[in-house]
Design brief:
Helix content: 25-40%
Largest sheet: 6 strands, antiparallel, barrel
Radius of gyration: 19 Å
CATH architecture: Beta Barrel
Order of helices and strands: HEHEHEEEEEHEEH
CATH class: Mainly Beta
Low-confidence stretches: none
Distance between the termini: 57 Å
Shape: globular
Strand order of the largest sheet: 2-7-5-4-8-9
Number of helices: 5
CATH topology: Small Protein B, Chain: A
CATH superfamily: Small protein B
Length: 163
């Protein structure tokens, strides 16, 4: 007899609790690929994240010496943390497989792409960051996206009126 449990989809067993999203990333960048990264945190940082006190709007990643680091992620100090509190915008290490890091190094250094943090959330009780490989958009690209969004909204209204 096989004592293993039957395989279940990850979404059924691991609910994702979003903490903060970078909504501006899709507008400012063309997102090419994304990775789920672990993040090295201090104890008071985890407590602040559980309270939802994070700002990810300016966060971005860099690759140095074969490691990926996250800069400008603002996690507010924990109110009961007293002397054990953390610095709000310190540089934090991201956890990725070495193969993924090598791919990021190639993309960032050779192609001139950017690593943008798009979301921070809890999965199975662990803090995760969604890191996206992105190319900056020009002003005319942003205008085209806005025009396309307006057109879709107008079409949806027209379909709603007919129905």
């Amino acid at each position: 007899m096989n004592s293993k449990k039957p395989a279940t989809p990850d979404s059924a067993e691991a609910p994702i609790e979003p903490i903060a999203r970078n909504r501006r990333a899709k507008f400012d960048y063309e997102l090419l690929d994304s990775w789920e990264c672990g993040i090295v945190l201090a104890g008071t940082e985890v407590k602040s994240l559980r309270l939802g006190k994070a700002n990810i709007s300016d966060a971005y990643g860099i690759v140095t010496d074969g490691e990926v680091w996250l800069l400008n992620l603002h996690i507010s100090p924990y109110e009961q943390g007293n002397r054990f509190n953390h610095e709000a915008t310190r540089t934090r290490k991201l956890l990725l497989h070495s193969k993924e890091i090598r791919r990021l190094i190639g993309s960032v250094e050779r192609q001139g792409l950017t690593l943008v943090a798009t979301e921070i959330y809890f999965k199975k009780g662990r803090a995760k960051v969604r890191l996206a490989l992105a190319r900056g958009k020009k002003l005319h690209d942003k205008r085209a996206d806005l025009r396309e969004k307006d057109d879709k909204r107008d079409m949806a209204r027209a379909m709603k009126v007919k129905a």
